[in-house]
Amino acid sequence: MSPKATPVWDLWPGDLAWQPMSPRLRTVWVLRSLVNVFLLAIVAAVGLVIWLGWDGLLWAFGGYVVLAGLRSWTVSRTVATWGYAEREEDLLVRHGLLTRRLSIVPYGRIQLIDLSAGPIERMFGLTTVQVRTAALGSTTEVPGLDPPVASALRDRLAVRAAEVREGL
Amino acid sequence: MSDEPAPPLAEAPLGPHAPSAPPEGARRQRLHPLTPLLESFRFLTAAVAAAGIQAFTSRNFLFAIYIALAAAVVGGIASLIALQYRGFVVWGRELHIYGGVFTRSHRTVPLDRLQSVDLARPIRARLFGLAQLNIEVAGGDGTDARLAYLKADRALALRSELLAIAGRPAAAQEAAAEAAASEEAAADRDAGLLVPQVTVKRLALASLLEALPVQITALLVFGTAFAVTGSIFGFSTVATTLWVGFFAPALLGYLQSTVAAVNRFLRNGRFRIARDGGNLLVQRGLTDTSHETVPVDRVTGVAFDEPVMWRSRRWRRVEVWTAAVAQQSATAVKSTTALPVGDPDQVAVVAAAAVPDLPSVFDVERPPARVRWRMPLRWKRTGAALTERAFVVRHGVWVNTHVAVPYARIQSVRVTQGRVQRMQGVATVRAMTAGGLGHDAVAAHRDAAEAVAMAAELRDRADAAAARERPRLS
What positions does the domain YdbS-like PH occupy (chain A) (predicted)? Predict the structure, then answer.
């Protein structure tokens, strides 16, 4: 691996114990992207059928297969980049394939902790933890956790947030 | 009717924690009778202008007079009715504000939560010796209650009364002192100022110099565009079609920038800043005067602006960012001008008053030279530094800004690396402060390893700084 391909979070001074997301997260996200591409394909199919007659359906299907394949490949690679680490005083979340993002949320600044689960996520028994601070637009997400892990994380965060309250 | 003395404070009838409402018979204090006229000032101006244009174009003066008469009569009756339903009552530890004819509104302001009471005097109110009170409360959305308009001396008295009820005697004394001072000679009032009042001459020059680059550029662009198109198509064609269709809107923008510059000059005229205990008191305005109070322990950042034409004079402007306690509201963050223009030593005094021990001159480190092609103009004037007290970043071409965020005010830290940045091995560090978007300290294009180390260091220093100032409320 060339030095430039090293993800930015691997340069962190000191050791971090990165926790991976649930392995089912990949399935969920691939499914979700398949559904999204399918909706797109339906819209495209209508246009293509009007333009090319019934051949258009074939084109739309072919396009769908190619796009869906590409999309699920990138999505499954993206899922692998997600991870979170709990340190003494803060929570680190990393993600992103093309644009790398590393968020650091101190426990003392946490204002709200949300748990949420969409329909596909619920089918696979996954939960998303969202952490908010007083800065607008600084919602940090930790998606794809097993419900017990998610509520345990939520409880740990809440306890730590109550212990070290640092205000604005 | 508006000058009747305020009724004596009643005890809260059902104990301190019971939901209290003033009894039906409680005497509402009215706003000044000229209020509706002043509030519909813009509308009136527009109506007069429309009538004038109508008269001018159709030469039908009688029609214009009818319109004006009808507007005056209808407006007058409506405003008289509306005034009957508007008023306020100070009841126990609450301020009740009533309003509305068709949709009645009744706002209860718990005075325990009072953040600040600002006195503002727009020019149209000053003409009649009136003022308005902006009452800010911690928490909730749209926390800005407004009492407009009151007679100026009554507004001052009410302000100190509200502050006294809110249990802020220091602030109340200050308000009372201010009221007393307004009658004394101006020379005596300069005693507590941090920096001498900004002179009109300097402020005018500064505003002009700040607006000049934009104006010159705009004029140059228009000029060259006009010359080029004119020499191709012939000036007469250009003048009629292109000019009207394309350049006129652009010229409007140019005019707007002029108006903005003049506005800024008027807003910051007679600028005075003083420090009182834990508050910065700002008083400013040539035509519309306003008093503002900035609690120093709510300052989340200090921005030092240096427009390009001020550089040779070493002038800078100081803006202070504060976060209201309201969290979900987009207007929670506001920046207050703490010094519209000042010498290096004046800037230093104001900076130290806003954040204890904050220096005003920073030595920032530029991003690596390999990103220079991405920001050819900005590169020299971009940078970041971890100073003793604050995280400092620098950015901007036309207006070069140093932003200093005290470590204790950093909420969360984010490192992002785009795809081009990845090829260059650089990353952007963003330190977020409480409040709105755009009020973050962003260190662009740092070397990737340095960026991550910087983020880690920021977190450590933030914890250390926060621990030092604990216990801390809010």
Answer: 80-157
Assembly ipTM: 0.87
**Higher-scoring residue by pLDDT: B393, A137:** B393
Distance, in Å, from the CA atom of B33 to the CA atom of B40, rounded to the nearest integer, reads 13
> With a CB-CB cutoff of 8 Å, which residues 13-32 of chain B face chain A?
none
Which of B452, B472, B473 comes nearest A12 by C-beta? B452
Domain boundaries, chain A: 24-78, 83-163
Q: Does B152 touch chain A (CB under 8 A)?
A: no
B153 versus B108: which is more confidently predicted? B153
Do residues B292 and B281 touch, judged by C-beta distance below 8 A? yes
- Please, what's the largest Cα pairwise distance for chain A? 67
**Identity at A155, one-letter amino acid code:** D
Q: What is the pLDDT of residue B413?
A: 92
- For B41-103, the three-class secondary structure string (H helix, E strand, C coil) is HHHHHHHHHHHHHHHHHHCCHHHHHHHHHHHHHHHHHHHHHHHHCCEEEEECCEEEEEECCCC
Q: What percent of chain A has pLDDT over 90?
A: 47
What does the alpha-carbon distance between residue B20 and residue B93 come to, in Å, rounded to a whole number?
9
Residue A139 touches partner B, C-beta closer than 8 Å = no
Taking the C-alpha atoms of residue B226 and residue B232, their distance in angstroms, rounded to an integer, is 10
Q: Which fold has domain A83-163?
A: PH-domain like (2.30.29)
Do B434 and A135 lie within an 8 Å CB cutoff? yes
Task: Look at residues B441, B436, B416, B414 and name the one whose alpha carbon lies nearest to residue B426.
Answer: B416
The closest of B379, B455, B364 to B416, measured between CA atoms, is: B455
pLDDT band at B57, cuts 50/70/90? Answer: confident
User: Rounded to an integer, what distance in angstroms lies between the CA atom of residue B48 and that of residue B55?
Assistant: 10
Please determine, for residue B141, whether its predicted confidence score (pLDDT) is greater than 60: no
Q: How far apart are CA B50 and CA B37, in angstroms?
A: 18
- H helix or E strand, kind and range, residue B244: none
The token pair that represents B282 in the structure block: 């700002």
How far is residue B347's CA from residue B402's CA, in Å, rounded to a whole number? 12
- Decide if B360 contacts B348 (C-beta within 8 A): yes
Of the listed ranges A137-146, B38-47, B240-249, B323-332, the one predicted with least confidence: B323-332
Tens of pLDDT along B19-38? 446 666 667 788 888 887 77
Task: Return d(Cα A96, Cα A9) in angstroms, integer.
Answer: 11
| Each residue's pLDDT tens digit, B350-368 | 999 988 888 989 999 999 9
Q: Which residue has the higher pLDDT, B276 or B331?
A: B276
Structure confidence by residue, pLDDT tens digits, B268-278: 888 989 887 77
- Provide the CA A134 distance to its chain's centre, in angstroms: 22
Residue A161: name the closest of A98, A117, A109 by CA: A109
If you search the block for the tokens 């990138």, which residue do you land on? A74
Residue B70 to residue B75: CA distance in whole angstroms = 8
* Residue of B412, B423, B446 to mutate for A, most A C-beta atoms under 10 A: B412
